[in-house]
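Key result, reporting period 2: structure in, sequence out.
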């Protein structure tokens, strides 16, 4: 955030990294721009690559945003077939000499910087390939709660598992729905989800939109809550 008004403190060093203080890392982990996006320009070099907020660190906002980006790319604007072939070959442990394809994959973050001129697929590249091969299903969502400090919402995904809420970037929901953060709890949404994911953090929601009016009696009956009636827990499809 340009112009953020604070001076670099001399105490409260973050115990998990050598570059930041605790409050900054907490703030950076909740923001897509990481710690570098939370300090004035003169401090950015000092916190560049902080592991506490990095897109390579599971659970950070930047990590979630990158998984969303890779999934949207895979489902809505796939890589050219000749480039995807190279990525799939790398996933199988093969070596490719297609410099043009490798350069494109590296720019997208789908392959890592080469070691001894050998390129390897990244976690993001695997997310892309999984999104290309895994079926995505329509899902009915209910927003349970939002945390404006952590910039996350907890969402029940009926087609996945009604007992384990899924964390979703708060900005993704506000951008998709046009609703303010405080308006989201209790709202029903429609989306598409990778319902074969094993853990809540691995569920990626796309095409989010506000759901239409619920049918009369949708929440009634002996079947329990509405989302339980949509699909069995655990993401199994009927």
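The corresponding designed sequence is given below.
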């Amino acid at each position: 955030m340009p112009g953020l008004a604070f001076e670099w403190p001399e105490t409260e060093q973050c115990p998990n990294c050598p570059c930041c203080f605790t409050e900054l890392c907490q703030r950076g982990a909740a923001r897509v721009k990481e710690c570098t996006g939370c300090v004035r320009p003169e401090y950015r070099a000092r916190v560049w690559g902080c592991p506490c907020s990095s897109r390579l660190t599971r659970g950070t906002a930047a990590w979630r945003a990158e998984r969303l980006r890779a999934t949207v790319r895979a489902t809505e604007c796939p890589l050219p077939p000749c480039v995807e072939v190279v990525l799939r070959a790398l996933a199988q442990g093969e070596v490719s000499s297609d410099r043009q394809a490798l350069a494109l994959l590296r720019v997208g973050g789908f392959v890592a910087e080469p070691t001894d001129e050998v390129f390897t697929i990244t976690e993001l590249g695997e997310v892309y390939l999984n999104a290309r091969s895994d079926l995505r299903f329509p899902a009915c969502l209910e927003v349970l709660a939002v945390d404006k400090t952590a910039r996350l919402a907890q969402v029940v995904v009926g087609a996945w598992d009604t007992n384990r809420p899924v964390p979703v970037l708060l900005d993704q929901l506000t951008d998709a729905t046009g609703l303010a953060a405080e308006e989201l709890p209790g709202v029903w949404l429609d989306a598409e989800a990778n319902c074969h994911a094993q853990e809540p953090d691995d569920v990626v929601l796309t095409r989010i939109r506000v759901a239409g009016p619920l049918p009369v009696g949708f929440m009634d009956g002996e079947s329990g809550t509405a989302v339980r009636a949509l699909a069995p827990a655990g993401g199994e499809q009927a």
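The chain has a mean pLDDT of 87. DSSP finds eight helices and five strands in the chain. This case is discussed further under Risks and Mitigation.
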